[in-house]
Queue: 3 jobs
Job 1
Amino acid sequence: MKLLLTSGGVTNASIHDALVDLLGKPTSEATALCIPTAQWGHPHCGPVSARGFVAGMPPWGGLTSLPCASLGVLELTAPPSIPRERWLTWVNAADVLLVDGGGAAYVLDDQSAIRVVDGVPEVISEGRWRRL
Protein backbone atom coordinates (compact mmCIF):
# COMPACT_ATOMS: atom_id res chain seq x y z
CA MET A 1 0.00 0.00 0.00
CA LYS A 2 1.22 3.48 -0.84
CA LEU A 3 0.29 6.50 1.25
CA LEU A 4 0.58 10.22 0.58
CA LEU A 5 -0.07 12.40 3.62
CA THR A 6 -0.69 16.09 3.02
CA SER A 7 -2.01 19.00 5.02
CA GLY A 8 -4.80 20.60 3.05
CA GLY A 9 -4.82 18.28 0.07
CA VAL A 10 -3.04 18.64 -3.24
CA THR A 11 -2.02 22.27 -2.93
CA ASN A 12 1.00 22.54 -5.23
CA ALA A 13 2.69 20.95 -8.24
CA SER A 14 5.11 18.93 -6.11
CA ILE A 15 2.31 17.19 -4.18
CA HIS A 16 0.36 16.65 -7.42
CA ASP A 17 3.43 15.08 -9.06
CA ALA A 18 3.91 12.78 -6.03
CA LEU A 19 0.29 11.64 -6.30
CA VAL A 20 0.62 10.96 -10.04
CA ASP A 21 3.81 9.01 -9.34
CA LEU A 22 2.04 6.89 -6.70
CA LEU A 23 -0.92 6.25 -9.01
CA GLY A 24 1.24 5.48 -12.02
CA LYS A 25 -1.15 7.47 -14.21
CA PRO A 26 -2.68 10.95 -14.42
CA THR A 27 -5.39 11.74 -11.88
CA SER A 28 -7.77 12.31 -14.81
CA GLU A 29 -7.54 8.56 -15.53
CA ALA A 30 -7.90 7.48 -11.90
CA THR A 31 -10.97 6.36 -9.96
CA ALA A 32 -11.29 7.78 -6.48
CA LEU A 33 -13.38 7.46 -3.34
CA CYS A 34 -13.51 10.43 -1.00
CA ILE A 35 -13.99 9.74 2.71
CA PRO A 36 -15.34 12.68 4.77
CA THR A 37 -16.01 10.78 8.04
CA ALA A 38 -13.40 12.49 10.27
CA GLN A 39 -15.06 15.87 9.70
CA TRP A 40 -17.99 14.93 11.92
CA GLY A 41 -15.74 14.85 15.00
CA HIS A 42 -14.08 18.24 14.50
CA PRO A 43 -15.63 21.23 16.29
CA HIS A 44 -15.15 23.53 13.28
CA CYS A 45 -16.56 21.11 10.70
CA GLY A 46 -20.10 20.15 9.88
CA PRO A 47 -22.53 19.68 7.01
CA VAL A 48 -21.24 22.68 5.03
CA SER A 49 -17.57 21.65 5.19
CA ALA A 50 -18.39 17.98 4.49
CA ARG A 51 -20.34 19.04 1.40
CA GLY A 52 -17.47 21.34 0.40
CA PHE A 53 -15.01 18.45 0.59
CA VAL A 54 -17.23 16.07 -1.36
CA ALA A 55 -18.09 18.71 -4.00
CA GLY A 56 -14.51 20.00 -4.34
CA MET A 57 -15.49 23.52 -3.28
CA PRO A 58 -13.02 26.03 -1.81
CA PRO A 59 -11.69 26.09 0.79
CA TRP A 60 -12.41 22.42 1.56
CA GLY A 61 -12.02 20.66 -1.79
CA GLY A 62 -8.23 20.46 -2.12
CA LEU A 63 -8.43 16.73 -2.83
CA THR A 64 -11.76 16.29 -4.53
CA SER A 65 -11.29 19.17 -7.00
CA LEU A 66 -8.72 17.06 -8.87
CA PRO A 67 -9.86 15.82 -12.26
CA CYS A 68 -10.72 12.11 -11.91
CA ALA A 69 -12.25 9.54 -14.24
CA SER A 70 -14.76 8.94 -11.44
CA LEU A 71 -15.17 10.24 -7.90
CA GLY A 72 -17.41 8.57 -5.34
CA VAL A 73 -18.08 8.94 -1.63
CA LEU A 74 -17.56 6.34 1.09
CA GLU A 75 -18.88 7.34 4.49
CA LEU A 76 -17.22 5.06 7.05
CA THR A 77 -20.41 4.81 9.06
CA ALA A 78 -21.87 2.77 6.19
CA PRO A 79 -19.72 -0.43 6.01
CA PRO A 80 -20.99 -2.01 9.25
CA SER A 81 -24.59 -1.73 8.06
CA ILE A 82 -24.32 -2.99 4.48
CA PRO A 83 -23.08 -6.28 3.02
CA ARG A 84 -19.30 -6.48 3.13
CA GLU A 85 -18.95 -7.61 -0.48
CA ARG A 86 -20.81 -4.48 -1.60
CA TRP A 87 -18.49 -1.87 -0.06
CA LEU A 88 -15.37 -3.98 -0.68
CA THR A 89 -16.18 -3.81 -4.38
CA TRP A 90 -16.09 -0.02 -4.20
CA VAL A 91 -12.79 0.07 -2.30
CA ASN A 92 -11.16 -2.50 -4.57
CA ALA A 93 -12.25 -0.60 -7.69
CA ALA A 94 -10.74 2.69 -6.50
CA ASP A 95 -7.25 3.70 -7.54
CA VAL A 96 -7.06 6.14 -4.64
CA LEU A 97 -8.85 6.86 -1.36
CA LEU A 98 -9.04 10.60 -0.62
CA VAL A 99 -9.45 10.85 3.15
CA ASP A 100 -10.33 14.25 4.56
CA GLY A 101 -9.03 15.50 7.88
CA GLY A 102 -10.99 16.55 10.91
CA GLY A 103 -11.33 14.72 14.21
CA ALA A 104 -9.34 11.52 13.82
CA ALA A 105 -10.24 10.47 17.37
CA TYR A 106 -13.90 10.48 16.29
CA VAL A 107 -13.11 7.94 13.58
CA LEU A 108 -11.07 5.82 15.97
CA ASP A 109 -13.67 5.87 18.72
CA ASP A 110 -16.85 5.35 16.80
CA GLN A 111 -16.24 3.92 13.38
CA SER A 112 -14.97 0.85 11.63
CA ALA A 113 -11.28 0.73 10.84
CA ILE A 114 -10.35 -0.57 7.43
CA ARG A 115 -6.90 -2.04 6.80
CA VAL A 116 -5.60 -2.63 3.29
CA VAL A 117 -2.81 -5.22 2.96
CA ASP A 118 -1.55 -6.27 -0.46
CA GLY A 119 -4.55 -4.58 -2.03
CA VAL A 120 -7.08 -6.52 0.07
CA PRO A 121 -9.22 -4.34 2.38
CA GLU A 122 -10.69 -5.78 5.56
CA VAL A 123 -12.58 -4.43 8.56
CA ILE A 124 -10.29 -4.75 11.56
CA SER A 125 -12.49 -3.04 14.12
CA GLU A 126 -16.15 -2.15 14.32
CA GLY A 127 -16.39 0.67 16.81
CA ARG A 128 -14.10 -0.94 19.37
CA TRP A 129 -11.15 1.42 19.13
CA ARG A 130 -10.66 3.79 22.03
CA ARG A 131 -8.81 7.05 22.36
CA LEU A 132 -5.76 6.83 24.62
Note: The helical segments are 13-23, 47-55, 84-93, 104-110.
Job 2
Amino acid sequence: MPLDPPRPPPLRGLLWTDPCGNPQGRDPEALMRSRYAAFALGLGDYLVDTLASTHPDHESPRQELARALSRARERQRFLGLRILHTEEDEGGERGEVLFYARIFERGHDVSFAELSTFVREDGAWRYAEGVLVPGEKLPRDGEGLTRERFLALAR
Protein backbone atom coordinates (compact mmCIF):
# COMPACT_ATOMS: atom_id res chain seq x y z
CA MET A 1 0.00 0.00 0.00
CA PRO A 2 1.57 3.37 -1.00
CA LEU A 3 1.95 6.16 1.53
CA ASP A 4 -0.50 9.03 1.36
CA PRO A 5 1.13 12.32 0.31
CA PRO A 6 0.83 15.26 2.73
CA ARG A 7 -2.59 16.91 2.58
CA PRO A 8 -3.10 20.64 1.95
CA PRO A 9 -2.52 23.04 4.83
CA PRO A 10 -5.24 23.48 7.45
CA LEU A 11 -6.53 26.88 6.35
CA ARG A 12 -9.29 28.98 7.85
CA GLY A 13 -12.76 27.95 6.75
CA LEU A 14 -11.64 24.54 5.50
CA LEU A 15 -11.90 21.12 7.07
CA TRP A 16 -9.64 21.73 10.05
CA THR A 17 -10.79 25.13 11.30
CA ASP A 18 -14.08 26.59 12.47
CA PRO A 19 -15.49 29.82 10.93
CA CYS A 20 -13.40 31.88 13.37
CA GLY A 21 -10.19 30.13 12.33
CA ASN A 22 -9.91 27.95 15.45
CA PRO A 23 -8.40 24.51 14.76
CA GLN A 24 -11.06 21.80 14.59
CA GLY A 25 -10.48 18.19 13.55
CA ARG A 26 -13.65 16.25 12.85
CA ASP A 27 -11.95 13.27 14.49
CA PRO A 28 -8.48 12.28 15.75
CA GLU A 29 -7.40 10.99 12.32
CA ALA A 30 -8.32 14.25 10.59
CA LEU A 31 -6.38 16.22 13.19
CA MET A 32 -3.40 13.86 12.84
CA ARG A 33 -3.37 14.34 9.06
CA SER A 34 -3.62 18.12 9.42
CA ARG A 35 -0.77 18.19 11.95
CA TYR A 36 1.45 16.15 9.61
CA ALA A 37 0.69 18.63 6.82
CA ALA A 38 1.42 21.51 9.21
CA PHE A 39 4.85 20.05 10.02
CA ALA A 40 5.56 19.62 6.30
CA LEU A 41 4.51 23.21 5.56
CA GLY A 42 6.11 24.83 8.61
CA LEU A 43 2.88 26.00 10.26
CA GLY A 44 4.16 26.23 13.83
CA ASP A 45 1.28 28.33 15.16
CA TYR A 46 -1.22 25.69 14.03
CA LEU A 47 0.84 22.97 15.70
CA VAL A 48 0.85 24.90 18.99
CA ASP A 49 -2.88 25.64 18.68
CA THR A 50 -3.67 21.93 18.30
CA LEU A 51 -1.78 20.83 21.42
CA ALA A 52 -3.82 19.72 24.43
CA SER A 53 -3.68 22.12 27.37
CA THR A 54 -1.83 19.43 29.37
CA HIS A 55 0.91 18.92 26.76
CA PRO A 56 4.38 19.59 28.26
CA ASP A 57 5.40 21.78 25.30
CA HIS A 58 3.14 24.49 26.73
CA GLU A 59 5.88 25.10 29.31
CA SER A 60 7.91 26.80 26.55
CA PRO A 61 7.12 30.37 25.50
CA ARG A 62 4.55 30.20 22.70
CA GLN A 63 6.54 32.17 20.11
CA GLU A 64 9.71 30.12 20.67
CA LEU A 65 7.77 26.87 20.42
CA ALA A 66 5.94 27.92 17.24
CA ARG A 67 9.22 29.05 15.67
CA ALA A 68 10.96 25.76 16.54
CA LEU A 69 8.07 23.69 15.18
CA SER A 70 8.01 25.79 12.00
CA ARG A 71 11.68 25.09 11.37
CA ALA A 72 11.21 21.31 11.06
CA ARG A 73 10.45 21.78 7.38
CA GLU A 74 13.83 23.47 6.83
CA ARG A 75 15.76 20.29 7.64
CA GLN A 76 13.23 17.54 6.99
CA ARG A 77 11.46 16.21 3.89
CA PHE A 78 8.00 14.82 4.62
CA LEU A 79 7.40 12.10 2.06
CA GLY A 80 4.23 10.40 3.24
CA LEU A 81 1.90 9.38 6.01
CA ARG A 82 0.18 6.05 6.51
CA ILE A 83 -2.59 5.70 9.08
CA LEU A 84 -2.40 2.19 10.55
CA HIS A 85 -5.05 2.26 13.29
CA THR A 86 -7.61 4.67 14.74
CA GLU A 87 -9.86 4.35 17.74
CA GLU A 88 -12.16 6.58 19.81
CA ASP A 89 -13.66 5.87 23.20
CA GLU A 90 -17.42 5.48 23.42
CA GLY A 91 -17.87 8.95 24.88
CA GLY A 92 -15.96 10.60 22.03
CA GLU A 93 -13.61 12.39 24.43
CA ARG A 94 -10.41 10.44 23.80
CA GLY A 95 -8.94 8.84 20.70
CA GLU A 96 -5.75 7.38 19.35
CA VAL A 97 -4.06 7.17 15.98
CA LEU A 98 -1.23 4.83 15.05
CA PHE A 99 0.64 6.16 12.04
CA TYR A 100 3.83 5.72 10.06
CA ALA A 101 5.55 8.92 8.89
CA ARG A 102 8.15 8.71 6.15
CA ILE A 103 10.65 11.54 6.72
CA PHE A 104 14.19 12.22 5.58
CA GLU A 105 16.59 14.63 7.26
CA ARG A 106 19.76 15.66 5.46
CA GLY A 107 19.65 12.49 3.35
CA HIS A 108 19.04 10.13 6.28
CA ASP A 109 15.85 8.17 6.81
CA VAL A 110 14.34 9.33 10.12
CA SER A 111 10.94 7.74 9.52
CA PHE A 112 9.02 6.52 12.56
CA ALA A 113 5.73 5.14 13.82
CA GLU A 114 3.82 6.81 16.60
CA LEU A 115 0.78 5.96 18.66
CA SER A 116 -0.73 9.39 19.32
CA THR A 117 -3.35 10.17 21.94
CA PHE A 118 -5.91 12.89 21.30
CA VAL A 119 -8.38 14.46 23.72
CA ARG A 120 -11.40 16.63 23.16
CA GLU A 121 -11.15 20.05 24.84
CA ASP A 122 -13.99 22.54 24.55
CA GLY A 123 -15.45 20.47 21.73
CA ALA A 124 -12.22 20.34 19.67
CA TRP A 125 -9.71 17.52 19.27
CA ARG A 126 -6.18 18.23 20.55
CA TYR A 127 -2.91 16.26 20.47
CA ALA A 128 -2.12 15.09 24.03
CA GLU A 129 0.89 12.78 23.72
CA GLY A 130 2.58 10.12 21.65
CA VAL A 131 4.78 7.05 21.91
CA LEU A 132 7.34 6.85 19.12
CA VAL A 133 9.24 3.90 17.65
CA PRO A 134 12.08 4.74 15.21
CA GLY A 135 11.97 3.32 11.70
CA GLU A 136 14.94 0.99 12.14
CA LYS A 137 12.88 -1.08 14.61
CA LEU A 138 9.88 -1.31 12.25
CA PRO A 139 8.86 -3.38 9.27
CA ARG A 140 9.54 -1.60 5.95
CA ASP A 141 7.25 1.45 5.63
CA GLY A 142 5.31 0.24 8.68
CA GLU A 143 3.73 -2.45 6.51
CA GLY A 144 1.57 -4.82 8.56
CA LEU A 145 2.22 -2.96 11.82
CA THR A 146 -0.67 -3.48 14.25
CA ARG A 147 -1.33 -1.66 17.50
CA GLU A 148 -0.32 -4.76 19.46
CA ARG A 149 2.93 -5.22 17.54
CA PHE A 150 3.71 -1.52 17.90
CA LEU A 151 3.24 -1.69 21.68
CA ALA A 152 5.55 -4.71 21.87
CA LEU A 153 8.23 -2.79 19.91
CA ALA A 154 7.77 0.31 22.08
CA ARG A 155 8.70 -1.54 25.28
Note: The first strand starts at residue 76 and ends at 88.
Job 3
Amino acid sequence: MKECFELVTAATDKTIGHSLEIKLDFGQRQKSRNKARTDCGETLGWFLERGRVLEDGDLMRCNDGTLVKVIAAQETVSQASCDNDHLLMRAAYHLGNRHVPLQIGNGWLRYQQDHVLDSMLQGLGLTVVCCERPFHPENGAYNNHHGH
Protein backbone atom coordinates (compact mmCIF):
# COMPACT_ATOMS: atom_id res chain seq x y z
CA MET A 1 0.00 0.00 0.00
CA LYS A 2 1.26 3.46 -0.90
CA GLU A 3 1.07 6.02 1.91
CA CYS A 4 0.72 9.78 1.51
CA PHE A 5 1.70 12.23 4.24
CA GLU A 6 2.08 15.46 2.24
CA LEU A 7 -0.42 17.56 0.29
CA VAL A 8 0.56 19.71 -2.68
CA THR A 9 -2.49 21.86 -3.47
CA ALA A 10 -3.63 22.42 -7.04
CA ALA A 11 -3.20 26.16 -6.56
CA THR A 12 0.49 25.75 -5.67
CA ASP A 13 1.74 24.46 -9.01
CA LYS A 14 -0.57 23.10 -11.71
CA THR A 15 2.40 22.12 -13.87
CA ILE A 16 3.58 19.33 -11.54
CA GLY A 17 3.10 15.95 -13.20
CA HIS A 18 1.47 12.99 -11.47
CA SER A 19 1.55 9.28 -12.05
CA LEU A 20 -1.65 8.12 -10.28
CA GLU A 21 -5.21 9.42 -9.97
CA ILE A 22 -7.83 8.69 -7.35
CA LYS A 23 -11.53 9.53 -7.61
CA LEU A 24 -13.06 10.46 -4.26
CA ASP A 25 -16.53 11.66 -3.34
CA PHE A 26 -17.07 14.51 -0.89
CA GLY A 27 -17.33 12.16 2.10
CA GLN A 28 -13.97 10.62 1.28
CA ARG A 29 -12.34 14.00 0.53
CA GLN A 30 -13.31 15.24 4.02
CA LYS A 31 -11.28 12.57 5.79
CA SER A 32 -7.72 13.38 6.77
CA ARG A 33 -6.95 9.69 7.31
CA ASN A 34 -8.44 7.18 4.93
CA LYS A 35 -7.76 4.34 2.52
CA ALA A 36 -9.06 3.85 -1.02
CA ARG A 37 -8.02 2.44 -4.40
CA THR A 38 -6.50 4.50 -7.19
CA ASP A 39 -7.94 4.35 -10.71
CA CYS A 40 -5.44 1.61 -11.57
CA GLY A 41 -6.46 -0.45 -8.50
CA GLU A 42 -3.53 0.31 -6.19
CA THR A 43 -4.36 0.72 -2.48
CA LEU A 44 -3.57 4.19 -1.16
CA GLY A 45 -3.65 5.42 2.41
CA TRP A 46 -3.41 9.08 3.32
CA PHE A 47 -2.53 10.68 6.63
CA LEU A 48 -2.91 14.44 6.27
CA GLU A 49 -3.44 17.47 8.48
CA ARG A 50 -6.90 17.38 10.06
CA GLY A 51 -9.57 19.88 9.09
CA ARG A 52 -8.79 20.32 5.41
CA VAL A 53 -11.00 18.97 2.63
CA LEU A 54 -9.18 17.57 -0.40
CA GLU A 55 -10.07 19.57 -3.51
CA ASP A 56 -10.35 18.47 -7.11
CA GLY A 57 -6.85 18.72 -8.58
CA ASP A 58 -4.95 18.49 -5.29
CA LEU A 59 -1.84 16.34 -5.35
CA MET A 60 -0.79 14.03 -2.53
CA ARG A 61 2.86 13.00 -2.31
CA CYS A 62 3.47 9.38 -1.31
CA ASN A 63 6.38 8.27 0.85
CA ASP A 64 8.07 6.88 -2.28
CA GLY A 65 7.77 10.25 -4.09
CA THR A 66 4.80 9.27 -6.27
CA LEU A 67 2.28 12.06 -6.83
CA VAL A 68 -1.41 11.15 -6.77
CA LYS A 69 -3.96 13.55 -8.25
CA VAL A 70 -7.32 13.86 -6.47
CA ILE A 71 -10.34 13.85 -8.77
CA ALA A 72 -13.73 14.86 -7.37
CA ALA A 73 -15.96 11.88 -8.19
CA GLN A 74 -19.43 12.17 -9.65
CA GLU A 75 -22.01 11.62 -6.94
CA THR A 76 -25.76 11.83 -6.55
CA VAL A 77 -26.72 15.40 -5.71
CA SER A 78 -29.81 17.55 -5.87
CA GLN A 79 -29.63 20.83 -7.73
CA ALA A 80 -32.23 23.45 -6.88
CA SER A 81 -32.64 26.42 -9.17
CA CYS A 82 -34.81 29.45 -9.81
CA ASP A 83 -34.62 32.87 -11.45
CA ASN A 84 -35.59 34.71 -8.25
CA ASP A 85 -32.53 35.71 -6.18
CA HIS A 86 -34.60 36.32 -3.04
CA LEU A 87 -36.13 32.86 -3.25
CA LEU A 88 -32.70 31.32 -3.81
CA MET A 89 -31.37 33.15 -0.71
CA ARG A 90 -34.32 31.87 1.33
CA ALA A 91 -33.57 28.32 0.20
CA ALA A 92 -29.87 28.73 1.10
CA TYR A 93 -30.89 30.06 4.51
CA HIS A 94 -33.14 27.06 5.20
CA LEU A 95 -30.48 24.58 4.09
CA GLY A 96 -27.81 26.38 6.13
CA ASN A 97 -30.09 26.36 9.15
CA ARG A 98 -30.02 22.55 8.86
CA HIS A 99 -26.20 22.55 8.54
CA VAL A 100 -26.39 21.02 5.07
CA PRO A 101 -23.11 21.14 3.09
CA LEU A 102 -23.99 23.41 0.17
CA GLN A 103 -22.44 24.28 -3.15
CA ILE A 104 -23.59 27.65 -4.48
CA GLY A 105 -23.67 28.52 -8.16
CA ASN A 106 -25.19 31.26 -10.30
CA GLY A 107 -28.93 30.66 -9.93
CA TRP A 108 -28.60 27.26 -8.27
CA LEU A 109 -27.79 25.41 -5.05
CA ARG A 110 -26.37 21.89 -4.92
CA TYR A 111 -26.44 19.49 -1.95
CA GLN A 112 -26.17 15.76 -1.35
CA GLN A 113 -29.45 14.27 -2.48
CA ASP A 114 -32.13 14.06 0.20
CA HIS A 115 -35.80 13.64 -0.70
CA VAL A 116 -36.97 15.56 2.39
CA LEU A 117 -34.85 18.59 1.46
CA ASP A 118 -35.96 18.24 -2.17
CA SER A 119 -39.61 18.45 -1.07
CA MET A 120 -38.91 21.43 1.19
CA LEU A 121 -37.31 23.42 -1.64
CA GLN A 122 -39.99 22.44 -4.13
CA GLY A 123 -42.51 23.70 -1.57
CA LEU A 124 -40.69 27.04 -1.56
CA GLY A 125 -41.07 27.20 -5.35
CA LEU A 126 -37.66 26.05 -6.60
CA THR A 127 -37.10 23.50 -9.35
CA VAL A 128 -35.16 20.52 -7.99
CA VAL A 129 -33.47 17.87 -10.12
CA CYS A 130 -31.44 14.86 -9.04
CA CYS A 131 -28.20 14.49 -11.02
CA GLU A 132 -24.68 13.07 -10.97
CA ARG A 133 -22.06 15.80 -10.50
CA PRO A 134 -18.85 16.40 -8.55
CA PHE A 135 -19.77 18.05 -5.24
CA HIS A 136 -17.77 21.07 -4.01
CA PRO A 137 -19.57 22.62 -1.02
CA GLU A 138 -18.52 25.86 0.62
CA ASN A 139 -15.96 25.53 3.43
CA GLY A 140 -17.90 27.85 5.71
CA ALA A 141 -17.36 31.30 7.13
CA TYR A 142 -14.70 30.19 9.59
CA ASN A 143 -12.76 28.13 7.01
CA ASN A 144 -11.91 25.49 9.64
CA HIS A 145 -10.42 28.03 12.06
CA HIS A 146 -13.38 28.33 14.40
CA GLY A 147 -12.49 27.69 18.00
CA HIS A 148 -14.68 27.73 21.09
Note: DSSP finds three helices and ten strands in the chain.
